[in-house]
Amino acid sequence: MRQLFRFLAIIVIFPAAAFGQPLDDQLTCDGNAHDFVSGLLDGQSIETPAMRVEADSVNAFRPAHDAGLTAFGLPVRAVFGYQPGDPMFKTGAGKLPSGPLYGVVVLGSADSVKRRLAETGSPAVVRAVVPLLMTAILCNQ
């Protein structure tokens, strides 16, 4: 009975971790932007339309409220991507990226994200979004 209460307490305190959808396998950067984003759209894990389309045409999507998306154990705050010529992505008014890209923004410092990626061998690039708070994990193709 005590173990059941511990389990329930963990679920209540950490619901995203208990029922989260890890994106680690998709961030090994051997996929493409279309498949990454369309898989999340099909699974209703991200909201449509894109919450923001940057000038360089990178589309940013908000995770669905109950999706519990994680990347390398960190909560995902945004999913982004762009693939030239793909009608799934809206284009911005600025210069287009040289090729497809996709990734996520997680809650965590760039240093901690770099360590986690190094442990898994992911070739993804790490960029600080808000220093010490939010970090982008980016796959270029």
Structure report:
- The chain is an alpha+beta fold and 141 residues long.
- It has helices at 2-13, 15-19, 33-42, 110-120; strands at 21-22, 52-53, 59-61, 69-71, 74-82, 101-107, 125-130, 134-140.
- It has one domain (21-140).
- Strands 1, 2, 3, 4, 5, 6, 7 and 8 form an eight-stranded mixed β-sheet that branches.
- Strand 7 and strand 8 form a beta hairpin.
- It starts with a helix and ends with a strand.
- Calculate the mean pLDDT score and round it: 88
Low-confidence blocks of residues: 1-18
**Shape, principal axes of CA atoms:** globular
Order of helices and strands: HHEHEEEEEHEE
Secondary structure tally, helices? 4
Structural class, by secondary structure, is alpha+beta
Radius of gyration: 16 Å
**What's the number of structural domains?**
1
Oligomer: single chain
How many strand units? Answer: 8
Instruction: Tell me the helix content.
Output: 25-40%
Largest sheet: 8 strands, mixed
Strand content: 25-35%
